[in-house]
UniProtKB/TrEMBL annotation, chain A:
<keyword id="KW-0460">Magnesium</keyword>
<keyword id="KW-0520">NAD</keyword>
<dbReference type="InterPro" id="IPR019818">
    <property type="entry name" value="IsoCit/isopropylmalate_DH_CS"/>
</dbReference>
<dbReference type="GO" id="GO:0000287">
    <property type="term" value="F:magnesium ion binding"/>
</dbReference>
<keyword id="KW-0479">Metal-binding</keyword>
<dbReference type="Pfam" id="PF00180">
    <property type="entry name" value="Iso_dh"/>
</dbReference>
<keyword id="KW-0560">Oxidoreductase</keyword>
<dbReference type="GO" id="GO:0005739">
    <property type="term" value="C:mitochondrion"/>
</dbReference>
<dbReference type="GO" id="GO:0004449">
    <property type="term" value="F:isocitrate dehydrogenase (NAD+) activity"/>
</dbReference>
UniProtKB/TrEMBL annotation, chain B:
<dbReference type="GO" id="GO:0006102">
    <property type="term" value="P:isocitrate metabolic process"/>
</dbReference>
<dbReference type="Pfam" id="PF00180">
    <property type="entry name" value="Iso_dh"/>
</dbReference>
<dbReference type="GO" id="GO:0006099">
    <property type="term" value="P:tricarboxylic acid cycle"/>
</dbReference>
<dbReference type="GO" id="GO:0004449">
    <property type="term" value="F:isocitrate dehydrogenase (NAD+) activity"/>
</dbReference>
<protein>
    <submittedName>
        <fullName>Isocitrate dehydrogenase regulatory subunit B</fullName>
    </submittedName>
</protein>
<dbReference type="InterPro" id="IPR024084">
    <property type="entry name" value="IsoPropMal-DH-like_dom"/>
</dbReference>
<comment type="similarity">
    <text>Belongs to the isocitrate and isopropylmalate dehydrogenases family.</text>
</comment>
<feature type="domain" description="Isopropylmalate dehydrogenase-like">
    <location>
        <begin position="1"/>
        <end position="233"/>
    </location>
</feature>
<dbReference type="GO" id="GO:0005739">
    <property type="term" value="C:mitochondrion"/>
</dbReference>
Length: 368, 238
């Protein structure tokens, strides 16, 4: 324990001139000894959630990943401490473990409680949504050279939720951009690019129209870019970006954007590679918390029928492993998944095959 | 979409109608404190109803079957909610035209995977910047997409999507500018002025040039200059 603390402090001092408490990188976890298991929170979710979570557990067990899962479910009563169906204990679990995996959650319809995703985002201060988007070899879409990462600011921007009616028939909605949030997400983007060997970061904006708000976002990105001279930095207007993405997605590497543009671009990129059923996603919070999640829905119509495709949740769990620096385990599992899909023998119904969830999972385990 | 153009998607035939006066482009930005900025998005009932009538009329007059409004009402409940309310009200007056709604992020995803499902799309101001550019991208690029701005008394026609090529001196120097978009926009203008036969002749000439695939500019992977492309269109006019 003491050596861990010492090592962490030394890394802090060596990696940055000044230790900025709000920087995400200042708290690095050290998983130095392989024998030590890491506790991670698991939210299987609703619908097909439990089935695909089971797939992840099986694959991890076969690959001997040193993770011990702490499972939490969404309750059926509103917890007054969190004002949602997620209990305080669940949130504390993520805060304690600092890493988690979440399946699809369906927010129950009704009033008097916050949406589950909003609760997680606000309580854990998840400020960046990271989605690696790459074409899966063997699963043909109209685009086979996609290899990019979208990093979306997740706390403010157009989604601040501040709206009001000025007079009858006139409504105003506020978009907020702050220096702190923009710097935070830009820092993460460049840090990610550096640690994952990416060469270029593109900031997406509409500063020609929204000069002050998007202007501030760009200013912050430029400031951070100066600290990483080895990484190319460019700025692309959102309309140009949409067009370039659908014509030639190979032009992009890492994209960093405010909330609304990030929402659009990350879903657009998911569409390029085959949809939300194949897209991994990871939310980064203050202090180095990482909550990986599958961004597709809970698919209640196929729940319990052993038909669900666990790829999205599996790829998200790989993002989680990479965040924990367990790169060789991550690579092994990723290769196993890509090979299984490329082979084409075991594919679930949404990919045009006839395999069940369990068969698909077993095929991946066999490939390990 | 023009037959003959090498694109990844087929059967793309979309008209995008964008509210052009309010929304996110109101130009109202404030510095709250030196590190916090606010931008105000305004939606009004008057503008929403005004824009809602246009696509249905357009569909009715041009034999189109479906109008889809693009929004983000799950997040911007009041603003986009007001926008959608106006649409739903107008939709009831056109029972023969199908009306549906789609969330913006899903819309972009569907555009790149199944664009055939869209016919006429309507959006508030900002989304109306993303959606046409995405659609232009899948249908061959901003060099071929026409557009028009319509008001109660005047109409100005211009390229449908610009995507950052405006004011590029180099393109003018190297003569690589694609005239197709502006030619088709002028055809739209002729239609607006109720000269349909002239409009048809111009559009057919352009379609033939593209179908032939010979006199194309750089953005369409051809080698010809602006003037040569225009000459080809002129040669094709009957």
């Amino acid at each position: 324990m003491a050596t861990q603390l010492l090592r962490r402090r030394v890394t802090q001092i060596l990696s940055h001139g000044s230790v900025n408490p709000s920087s995400p990188i200042s708290v690095t976890r050290h998983f130095s000894s392989a024998a030590e298991t890491i506790r991670a929170t698991l939210f299987p979710g609703d619908g097909i959630g439990p089935e695909i979570a089971e797939s992840v557990k099986q694959v991890f067990k076969t690959a001997e990943v040193p993770i011990e899962w702490e499972e939490h479910y969404v309750g059926d009563k509103v917890d007054p401490r969190t004002q949602s169906f997620l209990t305080w204990e669940s949130l504390e679990s993520v805060r304690r473990n600092r890493v988690g995996l979440k399946g699809p959650m369906a927010t129950p319809i009704g009033k008097g409680h916050r949406s589950l995703n909003l609760t997680l985002r606000k309580e854990l201060n998840l400020y960046a949504n990271v989605r690696p988007c790459y074409s899966l070899p063997g699963y043909k879409t109209r685009y086979d050279d996609v290899n990019l990462i979208t990093i979306r600011e997740n706390t403010e921007g157009e989604y601040s939720g501040l709206e009001h009616q000025v007079v009858r028939g006139v409504v105003e909605s506020l978009k907020i951009i702050t220096r702190q949030a923009s710097l935070r997400v830009a820092e993460y983007a460049f840090h990610y690019a550096k640690t994952h060997g990416r060469e270029r970061v593109s900031a997406i904006h509409k500063a020609n129209i929204m000069q002050k708000t998007d202007g501030l976002f760009l200013k912050c990105c430029r400031e951070v870019a100066e600290k990483y001279p080895e990484i190319t930095y460019e700025e692309v207007v959102i309309d140009n970006c949409c067009m370039m993405l659908v014509k030639n997605p190979a032009l992009f590497d890492v994209l960093v954007m405010p909330n609304l543009y990030g929402d659009i671009i990350s879903d657009l990129c998911a569409g390029l590679i085959g949809g939300l059923g194949l897209t991994p996603s990871c939310n980064i919070g203050e202090g180095g918390i990482a909550l990986a999640e599958a961004v597709h829905g809970s698919a209640p119509d196929i729940a319990g029928k052993n038909m669900a495709n666990p790829t999205a949740l599996l790829l998200s769990s790989i993002s989680m492993l990479r965040h924990l620096n367990l790169h060789d385990k991550a690579d092994r599992i990723q290769d196993a998944i890509l090979n299984t899909i490329a082979e084409g023998k075991y594919r679930t119904a949404d990919l045009g095959g006839t395999s069940t969830t369990t068969d698909f999972t077993k095929a991946i385990c066999d490939h390990l | 979409m023009k037959p003959g153009l090498p694109t990844r998607h087929e059967n793309v035939d979309i008209v995008v109608i964008r509210e052009n006066t309010v929304g996110e482009y109101s130009g109202l930005e404030y510095e709250v404190v030196p590190v916090v900025f606010e931008s105000v998005k305004v939606i009004t009932k008057f503008c929403s109803e005004r824009i809602a009538k246009y696509p249905f009329e357009y569909a009715y007059l041009n034999d189109r079957r479906k109008v889809t409004s693009v929004h983000k009402v799950n997040i911007m409940k009041l603003a986009d909610g007001l926008f959608l309310e106006s649409f739903r009200r107008v939709a009831t007056k056109y029972p023969t035209i199908e009306y549906n709604e789609i969330i913006l992020d899903n819309c972009c995803m569907q555009l790149v995977s199944k664009p055939e499902q869209f016919d006429i799309m309507v959006t508030p101001n900002l989304y109306g910047n993303h959606v046409p550019n995405t659609s232009a991208g899948i249908a061959g690029g901003t060099g071929v997409m026409p557009g028009g701005n319509v008001g109660a008394e005047h109409a100005v026609f211009e390229q449908g999507a610009s995507a950052g090529n405006v004011g590029k001196e180099k393109m003018v120097e190297h003569k690589t500018v694609n005239p197709v978009a502006l030619l088709l926009s002028s055809a739209m203008m002729l239609r607006h002025l109720q000269f349909p036969s002239f409009s048809d002749r111009l559009e057919n000439a352009v379609k033939n040039v593209i179908l032939e695939g010979k006199y194309l500019t750089k953005d369409l992977r051809g080698d010809f200059t602006t003037q040569e492309a225009v000459d080809a269109v002129i040669a094709n006019i009957e």
